[in-house]
Structure formats: C-alpha cells, structure tokens
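Let us work through a complete example step by step.
Step 1: write down the sequence.
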Amino acid sequence: MVRRDEGAATTSAELRAHNLARLLRAVHDGAGQLTRAELTRQLSLARGTATVLVRDLAGRQLIEELPSPADSPADVPVQRTRGRPTGVPSAHPHGPVALAVDLRDDSFTVAAFELTGRGTVLDRQERDTRSGTAMLADAAARLTIRRRQFGDRVIGVGVAVPSPLSGGTMVQPTLPDWQDVDVAGLLGVLTADEAGPVLAGNDATLAGLAEARRGVLRGVSVALHLHVATGIGGVLLVGGQPVTGARGSAGEFGHMPLAGGSGPCRCGSTGCWELDAGARGLLRAAGLGEQGDRMVQATRVIAVAADDPGCARALAQVARALGRGIGALVNAQDPEVVGLSGLAAEIHGAAPDAVRTAYLAALMRFRRPQPPALLPSTLGDLGTLTGASELVFDAFLTPRGLGTWPPPARKTA
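Step 2: predict the structure and record it as tokens.
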C-alpha cells in the first residue's frame, strides 16, 4: 500500500508518462476539487505542459475538466490567484473504477469508487449457514456481475479482510476455513481475473489509510487509528503511511490485555481487549447471542440504550473498556490524534463521557492537560471500503498502471 517510485524517467516518453501519472495522482488525492492552475503550481509544471497533459488525460477519458467554482470547498485549503479561472480536472463519467470488498466473517459488502474517491455501495450480503469458502464464492460472483456492468473501466479489486495478513495470506481469520487462504489469489481465480488485479489488506489498516487520505486524519503527522468491528484492530500512521510491521501484520491491538479481563480469546491468548470492547463484548454484556451480523446487532444495542436499562449498562461497560484501552495505546504510541471508526465511533458518539473519563484515567499524568483528541470517522460505512479502493488506485496511478488503461474505442460502459 506504500506508493512505489518506478524510477527516474530517462527519455521524453518516460518523462511524459511520469508527469501524466503525477497529475492524475494529484487529481485523485485532491478529490477532483483543485483547478488546473492549482495542480500546475502543486506539481511545479510549466503552464503549457500542464495544459497538454490535461488534454491527453481527457482524451483518454481518464478525466474531464469541469468549470471552476467561484470559491474553493471549505475542506480543501488552496491559494487563489488573480487572472482568468481555469477548469477543474475531475473524474470522467467513463473513467476508471475500482471495485472494493469489505469482507467480514458474517457478511460482505461490494462498492465502486471513481477516480476522485467518491464511492457507491452496490451489494451487501450476509453469510448463510454455508462455509466461509462459499461466501468467498458468492463475493466472486457479485464481482463478476459488477465487472460486466462497468466493463473495461474496472482497473482492479481491493479487498479488506478481518485477519492479519502475511504475504497476502490470512493467518488468524475468524472463520476456520479461511486459515492460510490467499484471499486475493482465490478471488482472482474465481473471477477468472476479469476484474483486473485483486489486492488485499487488513480491514483496520485500510480504515486508517482511508482516514489519512480522505478523512479526519488527513495531514496529521503521527496518528493512531482504531477500528472496532467484531474484534478490534488499528494502525499507527506516520506521514499518512501505515506502519505495518516486519511481517505486515502490525496493529492487532484487540489482542492486547488492555482492559483488565482474563477470559480466553479465539486467538489463543487471554484477556484480549476485544473481548471487552468489541462487538462480541457488547453483545455479551447485553445478554445477547451472536446470531447473524454481529455489527448490526451491536448497532441496535447502542441505538436502544437510551430506553433500555440493560443495553445502557452494556454500553457504559464497553465504553469504559474502550476508553481505558485507548489511553494505554496513547501512552505507548504517542500520537497527535486518535481516529475512531466502526463501532468505536458509534460507542464514542453514544457514550462520550464514559469513553473520555476512562481514557483520561488511563493516560500518564503528563499527557492529561493536552490529551490527543478522539476523532470519529467522517467516512462512515465507506471507510474500510475506501481504504480497499486506495490499494487499487495506488497500483493504477503509476506510469505502468496507466499503460493498462484501454483507449476509448474499447471501453464498453
């Protein structure tokens, strides 16, 4: 997921390809809200060069240039200059599409993302009584349908998985039949590679990446992000890049004994934080079973807590466990801010005082006067999917990736 430099350009053709990729990447990173003049300054291009590059990208149906707005959006700080306004390069209506899958042990969601990062959920399906392998086959079938819908516009598939990965393989999944499965390779085979390259990443890591690129962690030098679903994961981001560890499986914060529990965890350890602060912990505290989608059930518990004393007690208990664990992680990681997504954002929103009281109590004394802010996600349900789509765009927005883009005559949608 780290952007790779393909090497310095040595010929005029290579330089042109390099600048085309840089410009398209800047359009992507700026969410299609920067004018051509602003992009020209940002990339230190000559005005004439930028004009030629924009025309080239537009001719390939990679972008279209929209009229310039009178004022820049409030969330995109730019410097306006006097003179004739220029257009705003944005996503072409027939431009590249990245498909993204949020794979959970009890459901999966498929979405499509355009160049500027705008996403649309296409499919959502809960797992029936069949195996996790069968659910992967169902996801592949949906991807095949969507590939046919978007035609040659599809540049790849990003998959967020609920497991640490080692070399692309799920090494501690929540379903036994996912153990040691190369999910990207398997989906590639099941879709007959019709949907372009398939790339996989840990769901919590991708949620953090999405916040660093398009959400509350954008521009933060050192950030900690926590994603709570059935379990708890997260990532430390430095300069917007995830710190993934020696084997690519860092951030398993849910399997640290941060809340004082002592029960056995499915991971093989005891006292894991996710037993107290994840969806399972919330459902157990509310006296409920784990039938169907646990995230949906947990969200319902939070929603009725204001009127149901049992759910209110469960919410308060989990909120305290969540805050205590966040404080311990801040002591260890020293972030500027902490991002929250999934159930973490919902729990914080429903019981902010309980979370904050436990958070502050767990902090070292010198941190308490100016504790890192807790920032709920602004991306909502699209967060993890957005991160998965970024895997695809990172691979595509390179000279080599752009070389795979078909000419307009070949595109079918």
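Step 3: interpret the result. The CA atoms of residues 302 and 350 lie 7 Å apart.
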